[in-house]
Amino acid sequence: MGLVDDYRTDGAVILRAVVTPKEIELLSVGIDAVIDCPSPRAKVASASDDPGFFLEDFTTWREHREFGEFLRSTQLPEIAASLTGSQTIGLYHDHVLVKQAGTRQRTPWHQDQPYYDVEGFQNVSFWIPVDPVLVEDSLELIAGSHLGPWLMPRSFLDQQAQWFPEGSLVEMPNFEKERESHRILQWAMEPGDVIAFHMLTVHGAPGVSSTNSRRVFSLRVLGDDMMYSPRDWVTSPNMSEMFAGQEERVSGQPLRGKWFPQLWPR
């Protein structure tokens, strides 16, 4: 099968050498700037006794010229259109994830979309490392899990149901104990390689065993059928706080405007 068929069947594919060296340099500079000066939306996702450090930051493309330039040059939105069959591709948000060398903290198994305030099926998350990634340090994805159901989202460190009420969604299976029962996708990667996966694909990530940090820029994009679905709780990131007083958002409408620019067609 081709990439499109694999994406629609497995919910994840590896794209080799689709980000140029110049674009990798842009992302590297931008990520390092985030490390040096995180935004108010940043959070530390590792425990205090972890010998490493796991930093996340959200929606920083407007604050860092390098990320904006990357969004204007990358071919990933066009690839997203092919993978999803969508006529247009718009930005949802970016997500910087940095695990320093020696970080033990595992990113738990989860789906992305239940943490968000969008519904629909035509979407792609791009996981873009700017450092070489050993296969044992790379993102893990459960093939076919994007086909459903939605699974209960919980906070990573203390497992609290801060989004959907307890009992309203199916609980996340214990994939660690059931690893042999699932086809787990995982790839070694070089700068320029990208993992494209659906926002409902269950995924997680180990700590970093190598002597190098794992710096990743994650780009989330929306296709034609993705619509805003307001929640009664704080989503990831906190959209209501970020956009308060700036533009009206209407349930059932596509997310458009200066925070959600169209990336394809350009």
What's the CATH architecture name?
Answer: Sandwich
The helix/strand class is alpha+beta
What helical percentage do the residues reach?
10-25%
* Total of DSSP H or I helical runs spanning 4+ residues: 5
CATH-derived topology: Jelly Rolls
State the low-pLDDT regions, or none.
none
Count of individual beta strands: 14
Overall CATH class: Mainly Beta
**Rounded Rg:** 17 Å
Query: Kindly, what is the distance between the CA atoms of the first and last residues, rounded to a whole number of angstroms?
Result: 29 Å
* Gross morphology: globular
Q: CATH homologous superfamily, by name?
A: q2cbj1_9rhob like domain
Number of domains: 1
How are helices and strands ordered from N to C? HEHEEHHEEEEEEEEEEHE
Beta-strand content estimate: 15-25%
* Major sheet summary line: 8 strands, antiparallel
Average the pLDDT over all residues and give the rounded result. 93
